[in-house]
């Protein structure tokens, strides 16, 4: 939502400022400049990105419009679900939770956490780790290494998406200059047509520079920054899950494991000790 608002604010601010200064919007509609800059930018992505990265770019771009920050309630639901699951394991044994791990969407415990169930990355991270625990006795330090390796792999795999978009954003001012130089070449060829024709061609050439700078700093680079935060937030959520599992694997009761995981949540959305305690005890 905020991404759409931000795009609208940038666009409206530039247009209104131009109109207030006495500008004519028709002058900014230079199709040739859009084709030159847009086509060159898309081509540079195709040159720099292998097919697998292109798929990730097209898959992740829509996520910035959905919002990716989990709420305090989301974290409480997830920690509560984990606590209930491990309490069941304490009472009935680890094998009793196998059905919840195999089909988390149908689990009356795990399905209550939308933050976990609706994200395949976090869901698979949790369930696959639990399957390793169910398969045999794994030392906590080995379990920690296993989870750290998956988190690191996720970050290494997805960071190139924002980095690639960012590099394209950095190149846009240069592509705007390319479009402007082409416009100057056309201008030099029309000097004999008179001052009015030359003025139109110069204006069109300058629009290329304008578009390159605006697209870079007003849209593409901010989008790259947003995608970076998407990956960072999900990696942090995986670390929260890791903290809970590891704390339980080391012999701590579910409530203590939940408290350890709570402290790894960023302060903006971290529930208080009392809020988590009341949720785990079924109090409002």
Polypeptide structure, described:
The protein has one domain. The longest helix is centred in the last third of the chain and has 55 residues. With 284 residues, the protein is mainly α. It is built from 12 helices and no strands.
Entry summary:
This protein has one domain. Helix content is 77%, strand content 0%.
Number of DSSP strands? 0
Give the overall average pLDDT: 90
Radius of gyration, in Å, reads 26 Å
Taking pLDDT < 50 over at least 5 consecutive residues as the criterion, the unreliable ranges are none
Shape: elongated
Strand content: under 5%
Keywords:
single chain, about 280 residues, mainly alpha, elongated, flagellar rotation
Question: What secondary-structure arrangement, pairings included, does this model have?
Answer:
Layout: H1 2-20, H2 25-28, H3 31-48, H4 51-60, H5 72-92, H6 98-102, H7 114-117, H8 120-135, H9 140-188, H10 195-249, H11 254-262, H12 273-280
Transmembrane segments: 27-48, 172-191, 203-220
Family: Belongs to the MotA family.
Keywords: Cell inner membrane, Cell membrane, Chemotaxis, Flagellar rotation, Hydrogen ion transport, Ion transport, Membrane, Transmembrane, Transmembrane helix, Transport
